[in-house]
Amino acid sequence: MRDVLYFFGQLLFLPHVLLFIFSKEREVIAKDIYAKKNFNPSLVHQIYSLSKELLTNKYFRTLFYFRTNGIVSKILRFFYPRNSSFIIDVNTKIGGGLQLAHPYATILNAEKIGENVYVNHLVTVGEKNGKRPIIEDGVKLYANSIVIGGITVGKNAIIGAGAVVVKDVPENAVMVGNPAKMTSS
Question: What is the phi/psi pair of residue 11, to 5°?
Answer without folding.
Answer: -60, -30
